[in-house]
Amino acid sequence: MRIALTGSSGLIGKALVRSLRADGHDLVRFVRRAPTGPEEARWDPREGYVDPAGLDGVDAVVHLAGAGVGDHRWTAAYKKEIRDSRVLGTAAIARAVAALATPPSVLVCGSAVGYYGDTGEHRVDESAPPGQGFLPSVCVEWEAAARPAREAGIRTAHARTGLVVSAEGGAWGRMFPLFRAGLGGRLGDGRQYWPFISMHDEVAALRHIIDTPALFGPVNLTAPEPLTNREVTAAMGRVLRRPTVFAVPAPALRLALGEFSQDVLVGQRAVPRRLSETGFTFAHPGIDEAIRAALTREPT
Q1: DSSP 8-state code for residue 240
Q2: Containing domain of residue 101, as a range?
């Protein structure tokens, strides 16, 4: 297949590129700088520009670009960056593929389980409504921005990803050094649910969406059984053989993280109903095996 990607330099994007290349797929990586080779094409999400030549003959498009939610303190300016990087980028890609004489068969857009807001003890699948707050509102706009592709008849899926267990970046990438040093612990009361997924399964799920015509609309990319932050903390200590006696109280998180702390202290008990219904098999359904896979940097 010929597959176009945005966000190929990000944590998930790099792993997906490795996996697709290993299986011999022809890739086009959209970049915001000047292209340096035939595998790259130019795009500018803020200006709404996507080089149509880069989309010529593609069978699928995977759109993963977006500013990191936890990369900076949530100032008004950075919240705008989080929103614009997702909404404007998705709109640009959706318009570009919709305008093609021969469009791709599928557009897979990144999204997040943050769509559901704080679900407490309640299990949610893809049929659940959006929650309240900044991140749910961003996710709603993010997914709505793909409307031109849907209206053009392109199968469009929104990969609502949970917390990816990886030592190379993301939330887990920040946690591993702390836990290895014996400084890891629960966040707040630790009762918030963390819908985790191993990097191997994240990549496999994205590829499953590409290959499965029945998958469109929202698709939760999470392990079958989300765990609480307290349970995840215990698993980290168990696998790494380190104590987990430290805890970060909620007031300290609010002081350190500002508004972002509100999303650290809540969680989503999200389950992958649509993946399960379409026969997806998880390589690492449990948290211990997901952590071990991240430590061994299992190939994706």
Answers
A1: H
A2: 2-295
Q: Is residue 300 part of a domain?
A: no
- Please report whether residue 128 resides in a domain: yes
* Residue among 217, 89, 94 at smallest CA distance from 158: 217
* Confidence (pTM): 0.94
3-state DSSP call for residue 196?
A: strand
Residue type, 213: P
First to last CA, the chain: 18
The model's pLDDT over 17-42, given as tens digits with 9 standing for 90+, comes to: 999 999 999 999 999 999 999 899 99
pLDDT at residue 300 tops 60: no
Mention every residue, 6+ apart, whose C-beta is less than 8 A from residue 84: 46
Total domains in the fold of the chain: 1
Given this model, what pLDDT does residue 254 score? 59
- What distances in angstroms separate CA 7 from CA 39, 136, 269, one per listed residue? 14, 21, 27
Q: How many residues does the chain have?
A: 300
For residue 204, give the CATH number of its domain: 3.40.50.720
Backbone angles phi, psi at 140, to 5 degrees: -60, -45
pLDDT of residue 69: 83
CA distance 277 to 271: 12
Give how far Cα 241 sits from Cα of 24, 184, 187, 275, Å.
Answer: 39, 12, 19, 33
Per-residue tokens: 75: 């100032």
> Which whole number is the average pLDDT over 259-283?
86
Residue 229 CB coordination number (10 Å): 20
For 77-102, what is the mean pLDDT? 96
- Among 27, 215, 26, which Cα is nearest to 105's? 215
